[in-house]
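A.,

Following up on our hallway conversation. Structure tokens first:
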């Protein structure tokens, strides 16, 4: 639509090129990034992916039994949901980490149900094959089981999620039970639970004492019994995570919990290095999109300022 408006209003003057009469009228073109030029439209990209069956909670259970590692990443918008789904991940988490990596908050605490719904709806427009899990943000479930069911229901009804995740152990068991009783699949989350950052005194590795390890083992079992279809284990010692994973019949998905879990999850913006700043020890940067994006925009700015962009092939005639 923007293209049509611009075409209708006529050609814009080529200021930079006209102000340098001694220079050739058309300087050398800016080399285009081949992948960018060839990139198909999102719909075409989806169509090119070989058909895979829809991932469900039952699929994850099968992966555990077959010892096939489960792959989960976060995504918060349509383009990245399309990309991670085309990459073949099993689970897309619309995590409340969006508060930090997308919205710029210091913690996840300011994230609301409305924030999650907004991003979840964008993710669902990509129609992922992956199972889509919506995070229950701070204060969306802690008040009562009734509040938890209502907000979990909104994630499915208004957002299109296929499951929800909530943080906590013993104290959230009544909420997990109520949500599961409402036929809403629930993913648990134990260990470092970022919504408890103030109680925990920072983002620290959990399960360091014998007492803490005993509590985590017990809570993992309780979450399974309460109806969770899986549990995220965050920032706990690898031997403990392996022990819990072996003891449970439901899959565990680790983040900073070692290779003994049934699957792994990372925040997309961490694994793609889409932001600066210190990273936890468990993050590996599998690509550097932050630097690539900065270089791309710098190239655009330089091309505009030197008159090398736009060129005739980018223009509409009258
Ligand atoms: O919000 C989030 O992204 C998460 C993952 C790190 C598990 O909870």
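Then the amino acids I'd put at each of the 318 positions:
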């Amino acid at each position: 639509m923007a293209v049509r408006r611009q075409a209708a209003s006529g050609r814009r003057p080529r200021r930079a090129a006209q102000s340098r009469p001694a220079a050739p009228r058309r300087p050398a073109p800016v080399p285009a990034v081949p992948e960018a030029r060839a990139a198909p439209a999102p719909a075409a990209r989806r169509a090119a992916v070989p058909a895979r069956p829809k991932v469900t909670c039952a699929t994850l259970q099968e992966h555990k039994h077959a010892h096939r590692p489960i792959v989960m990443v976060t995504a918060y918008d349509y383009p990245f949901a399309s990309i991670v789904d085309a990459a073949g991940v099993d689970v897309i988490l619309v995590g409340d980490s969006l508060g930090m990596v997308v919205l710029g908050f210091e913690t996840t605490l300011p994230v609301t149900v409305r924030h999650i719904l907004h991003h979840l709806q964008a993710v669902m427009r990509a129609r992922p094959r992956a199972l889509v899990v919506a995070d229950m943000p701070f204060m969306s479930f802690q008040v009562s089981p009734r509040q938890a069911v209502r907000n979990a229901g909104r994630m499915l009804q208004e957002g299109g999620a296929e499951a929800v995740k909530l943080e906590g152990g013993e104290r959230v068991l009544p909420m997990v039970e109520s949500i599961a009783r409402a036929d809403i699949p629930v993913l648990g989350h134990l260990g470092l639970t970022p919504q408890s950052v103030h109680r925990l005194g920072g983002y620290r590795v959990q399960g360091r004492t014998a007492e803490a390890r005993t509590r985590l083992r017990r809570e993992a079992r309780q979450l399974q019994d309460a109806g969770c279809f899986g549990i995220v284990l965050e920032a706990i010692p690898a031997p403990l995570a392996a022990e819990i994973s072996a003891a449970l019949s439901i899959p565990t998905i680790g983040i900073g919990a070692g290779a003994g879990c049934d699957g792994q999850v990372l925040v997309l913006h961490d694994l793609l290095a889409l932001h600066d700043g210190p990273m936890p020890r468990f993050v590996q940067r599998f690509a550097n999109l932050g630097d690539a994006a900065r270089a791309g925009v710098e190239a655009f700015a330089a091309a505009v300022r030197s008159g090398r962009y736009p060129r005739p092939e980018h223009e509409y005639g009258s």
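Confidence is low (pLDDT under 50) at residues 1-26, 34-40. Curious whether your intuition agrees with the design.

B.
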